Amino acid sequence: MAALPLISVIGTAIGAGTQVYSAVQQSKDAEAAAKFNADQTRKAAKIKELDDRENALRKQEQNRKYLGARRAQLLEKGNGLIEGGDADFLDEEVGNLELRIMDDSVRSQRAQAGYQNQAFSYDFQAQQAKKAGKINTAAAAISGFNSISSSYGKNFGFGGGPDVSGAGKAEVVGY
User: CB-based burial of residue 151 (10 Å sphere; 0-12 exposed, 13-18 middle, 19+ buried)?
Assistant: First the structure.
């Protein structure tokens, strides 16, 4: 019979140690996941930036070809001169094409800012997980110490003290 109290205390100590280890691992896992997400978001931002740059260069080349063809049409129409309404029209086309490129650039920059904000958010989550892990580990250690001391007191007849956890017996109050 003397072995049962000792086994109970050892079991409580193992449980407490497992809780502490679990709190540490949960914190590390949450931090690692948030860091991974931040890295992936930064990579996606870089890919988006490169894709947008490539698309802009492609559009500029298409616009140059289109405008060259339009100039040739207008020169042929005007016997070697582009003047009056045709010149105004060509200037407007050039301006509109450049505006589209600038609009695409603004959209790209906004997307980049969105990726950077998301990466910052993941960095913040990683920092918070690390801080919370320390608090959760300390809480698990304190709880485990209390469980071990309570188990020791109950099994060996001293210590333990009264149950102040609030998980004691419920009291029914009548009218």
Answer: buried
pTM of the prediction? 0.58
**Long-range contacts for 39-47 (Cβ within 8 Å, ≥24 apart)?**
41/115, 41/118, 41/119, 41/122, 42/115, 42/119, 44/115, 45/111, 45/112, 45/115, 45/116, 45/119
Helices then strands (H, E): number in the chain?
2, 0
Q: What is the pLDDT of residues 141-163, one digit of tens each?
A: 888 788 877 777 777 766 545 55
CA separation for the pair 165, 170 (Å, rounded): 12
Q: In which residue are the tokens 């698990």 written?
A: 140
Instruction: Encode pLDDT of 62-113 as tens digits.
Output: 988 888 888 888 777 777 676 777 777 778 888 888 888 889 889 988 998 9
Q: Could you tell me how far CA 133 lies from the centroid of its own chain?
A: 18
DSSP 62-119: HHHHHHHHHHHHHHHHTTT---THHHHHHHHHHHHHHHHHHHHHHHHHHHHHHHHHHH
